[in-house]
Amino acid sequence: MQILDCTFRDGGYYTQWDFPDDLAKPYFETMERLPVDIVELGYRSRPQKGYYGQYFYSPVLLLRKVRELAPTKTLAVMLNEKDCSLNELDSLLDPCRGLVDMIRIAVAPVRFSNAIALAEIIREKGFKVGINIMYISSLNENSALFDTLSKGDDVADAISLVDSYGGVSPEQLKLIVSLCKGVTSIPLGFHGHNNLELAMANTLTAIDSGCEIIDATITGMGRGAGNLRTELLLTYLAAKNGLETDFDKLGNIVARFEKLKEDYGWGTNLPYMVSGANSLPQKDVMDWVSKRYYSVNSIVRALQNQKRGEKDNLKLPVLQPALCEKVIIVGGGPSVNEHAEAIRLFVEKDPEIVVIHASAKNAAVFKGVNNKQYYCIVGNEGQRLESVFSAAEGIDGICVLPPYPRKMGTFVPSGLIEQSFELEDVSFSTKYADSHTAVALQTAILLKAVEVFLLGYDGYPNQSLSVKEQDLVNENNYLFNEAAKHFSTFAALTATRYEIREQLSLYQYII
Amino acid sequence: MQILDCTFRDGGYYTQWDFPDDLAKPYFETMERLPVDIVELGYRSRPQKGYYGQYFYSPVLLLRKVRELAPTKTLAVMLNEKDCSLNELDSLLDPCRGLVDMIRIAVAPVRFSNAIALAEIIREKGFKVGINIMYISSLNENSALFDTLSKGDDVADAISLVDSYGGVSPEQLKLIVSLCKGVTSIPLGFHGHNNLELAMANTLTAIDSGCEIIDATITGMGRGAGNLRTELLLTYLAAKNGLETDFDKLGNIVARFEKLKEDYGWGTNLPYMVSGANSLPQKDVMDWVSKRYYSVNSIVRALQNQKRGEKDNLKLPVLQPALCEKVIIVGGGPSVNEHAEAIRLFVEKDPEIVVIHASAKNAAVFKGVNNKQYYCIVGNEGQRLESVFSAAEGIDGICVLPPYPRKMGTFVPSGLIEQSFELEDVSFSTKYADSHTAVALQTAILLKAVEVFLLGYDGYPNQSLSVKEQDLVNENNYLFNEAAKHFSTFAALTATRYEIREQLSLYQYII
């Protein structure tokens, strides 16, 4: 049995395939010393749109360094079949000769024959060839794959079964392995994802069923819920089979990745469990989990919709608001509560000011204020609003939701369905249409506001910004910049770390 | 099949069985609405030494509140067999009548007959009785338990198999269940721990093998590596068996516990994996993992020693140092590096000053300083020291280790074995003998120091103290207080948030 560690290749989904040298060096040095047979360090790829880091392209420069750090290991890189045509193989692979030992091709079951065509050429170039078949939790006895699998016999050195959705059960896996073994004699492998915390059990089942190449990553770092942990596999094999493992070295590298995990937060959680149990793709879930304003709840609701094949379950009337000149947009920062008295004074002085609540977090501050109020309902804001206002007192205001269909589903606070509207579109921005700040800004544009004041967009202290927070900051700055073009005044009235065109003070208006 | 949620009972190991009311209320209300059959809310216990919170004693006051929040659920409390004698049952259980439905007895396999004696009386009082057999990963076909298990038939309503070490495999579990079924007809249950990420797979195996009561906790909160997650079991059963589950309610309560988890950090990690794979008790590991100065490495090393039955592997000569009057003790805080120049000046001015490095973190600052230096080697400090000094330059100084035998094992930096000594004892304190600060203070006492100055004990900003940090602060404050009695001067010379008798400034000495 061989162990393949693909921490950088699969973990790159979290870091955009950049890893600092002071992590890369100890990682590859440790791999060299652990009983890991194959190290898959990244992808090779033709140029793609958008930013992808060095382990996505794995340039020769990088391969040379890795080769030096792990001289005795089999080095592998991966190609995505769907992004790779036959005539590109020369330019992609010829420079790797002598540096990389093995090329693995990731392919969907229905496109298996394309992988075979690639494998033929790759093997001729002198590389070992692995074919990674994805989405195996959607396979069964009748899947067409098993009719064509034997074509791999002549061109591949291994076929690995990839539980991309993290949804396969040990019994289903046992069946799939035996179906494979019925038609091919190539060594099989297994790559497990951990949505249902079954990566380890599935791996043990795979080994029992005769799989010979086991994929794992340090701390389970990998797309979505992540993978089988290398340290778990090694610890288990050390205890049960006497596999020689240097736990000092293993412990040190695990500690390094645990630190990185604090920032990126891979590992399973309720949304990944739901996607795994229902074999739904992780890509959306991974985006949603990384956004702070989507609660666990709203993600699970969206997944339940996906499972039922519903994009959304409620079409609301389109918002066509009465116009007004002056608008305040209220964010979720603590400054609103801190300056509550001054804010109420500012708003009540001018009954024409319209209040748009981007977040319901500070809605209580405006209780009893007579100005017209809009509540933007994205993610969990509907439930938050319900918890601010008791059923008895009711909520006086209008709810605004993102355009239909809403990926995240529709939740309108109880009793408010008659006062709820959706945006026709988010016209001022091409991105982030379902962020609550985007909905608030679009509402201000529809109101044809001339002066827009922002309260409670406090931002975060720079030194302690997590990756999630940094993403949110970038996103809001982009939205502020795009929306500002539509207003003569666009100013923050409470202290802010965001890039907002003007920064004024609430207190200059109520002096 | 019945689902038993024991979040507060097993999760209490992390919170000393206190949970705030604003978590308890939504937790029990959510249990009432989820397809959970039994809620085990805590222990009942006679008075114990040390602090244990309200869910450890579960007073009638509390039981009444819980009964109101979850009126339709079977409520259970647990008794520890080893802490419970027959004549205490009246006082422990009579007050619970009408409030609690089920009593579960936790018992080691070798003491099973004691549980039977308790069960008889408990059943007569009108309660349902469950017996939880612990440490099942140490059972096999020849275990004496299987000769006596049938005695449970007349007195118990369920027997649950508890994988206390988190070390059982699905095959072993299948065997144990079938051995049980061979001798008893009582409904069986399973309680899985997640050290090897096999709690879910074992649970599915238990269900397949005919277990009828499945234990789980929200977010897996439970002793050591924790349990099967309730949300995972419910998600799986909802997807595969159509179990009706309110994901909104589930998502909300999971989010609450995920927040708590950020503070306490339950879940598996390399040390728990090692203890699980080798069926070692989690209690020590849980203590060690909660102490910041034990690295993953040193814990794994200690566990490897336990596995081999070694308490420690190296007896060193006892430290008998030359005496000196003036000592500085250097902690690991960043202030040492910030004031490096001034510190070197202070130390070099007086060649008689002895430097004791409680942590090796700041050792580099004292490179080339001619004063005598002691390095306290606890946890990972030995390796840290190695990484500060290259092999070529060597380390000039004396290493001091805690008294023999050292639970955490012995690691001496390479080439330093001739300069390494151990303390005979830590006499000034009855606690924390293997903390690096205790070793440093004891060394100062052995030196018969009169003036002791502390550098780099910065402490933490109060508002963001994690549980671990708070524990360390309490521990160090206790040590400072006890040790100070031995010195005329005991003063911090860099800014500190610790309670150190005197607070002076480094700069007053080098003006």
TrEMBL record, chains A, B:
<keyword id="KW-0464">Manganese</keyword>
<dbReference type="InterPro" id="IPR000891">
    <property type="entry name" value="PYR_CT"/>
</dbReference>
<dbReference type="InterPro" id="IPR013785">
    <property type="entry name" value="Aldolase_TIM"/>
</dbReference>
<dbReference type="Pfam" id="PF00682">
    <property type="entry name" value="HMGL-like"/>
</dbReference>
<dbReference type="GO" id="GO:0009098">
    <property type="term" value="P:L-leucine biosynthetic process"/>
</dbReference>
<protein>
    <recommendedName>
        <fullName>Pyruvate carboxyltransferase domain-containing protein</fullName>
    </recommendedName>
</protein>
<dbReference type="GO" id="GO:0003852">
    <property type="term" value="F:2-isopropylmalate synthase activity"/>
</dbReference>
<dbReference type="InterPro" id="IPR050073">
    <property type="entry name" value="2-IPM_HCS-like"/>
</dbReference>
<feature type="domain" description="Pyruvate carboxyltransferase">
    <location>
        <begin position="1"/>
        <end position="253"/>
    </location>
</feature>
